[in-house]
Amino acid sequence: MADVAEGLVPPPAVDQTGNLTIWWVPAIANVLAPSASTEIGGAGAFRLTYSFTEDGWDFDASQEKIKDPRLTLKQPLEALGTSPVSLKTLKYVESTQAGSANVVLTEGLSGFFVERSSVPNATLAAEAQKVRVIPVTLGKQLPGPRNGQGKFTILQEAAVTGVVGGPVALAA
After folding, report:
1. Which of 11, 105, 121, 124 is the most exposed place for a label (fewest CB within 10 A)?
2. Is residue 4 part of a domain?
3. Domains in the chain, number
4. Is 112's pLDDT higher than 90?
5. What pLDDT score was predicted for residue 109?
6. Which residues contact residue 84 at a Cβ distance below 8 angstroms, ignoring those fewer than 6 apart?
7. pLDDT number for residue 136
8. Which residues fall within 8 angstroms of residue 83, CB to CB, at 6 or more apart?
9. What range does the domain containing 134 cover?
10. Residue 48 within any structural domain of the chain
11. Is 15 part of a structural domain of the chain?
12. Is 157 helix (H, G, I), strand (E, B) or coil?
């Protein structure tokens, strides 16, 4: 393609506000095509998005660079290595409401976080929507910071127990 000057209008982007949904799903038969109706919409699955604080849901991901020095070559080369992925410490509000993260995410539980971005949170899960599946085992629920302000919170570690791939399409 020929070089074309960029216009004054940047490419469109989707605002994060209201366009992220996080589900807890206890079992997924095929992580490459989770079912919108029987798994995300099934028994034991919960929407947890609004339980999390704004700093309570985040990935820590990178890709390693491996040095590849060669004899007499003035510039060392590089190769791409593994891509470590983990969830940062989860932080959510303390609540006794059924379906809240505080009630659902118990210590030792294994299952899946399913994250959908760029779709309004009010939209129900449906076939062909793109999601990221994150297999985890949950750690202890620990009290969050106590500073006399805001809501009481819970901190929890989640160990990633399987490969976290790119977004996949939901099946029916």
Report:
1. 11
2. no
3. 1
4. yes
5. 98
6. 60, 61, 62, 64
7. 98
8. 61, 62, 63, 64
9. 20-169
10. yes
11. no
12. strand
* pLDDT given at position 104: 98
1 within a domain of the structure (yes/no): no
Containing 80, the helix (H) or strand (E) segment is strand 77-80
* CB neighbours of residue 134 within 10 Å: 23
For residue 11, what pLDDT is reported? 85
Distances (CA, A) of 61 to 1, 82, 112: 32, 10, 18
- H or E segment to which residue 104 belongs: helix 101-104
Task: Enter the tokens of residue 172.
Answer: 């029916």
Distance CA 118, CA 80 (A): 29
**Rounded-to-integer distance, Cα 114 and Cα 106, Å:** 17
How far apart CA 170 and CA 127 sit, in angstroms, is 5
Q: Residue 5: its pLDDT value, please?
A: 82
pTM: 0.89
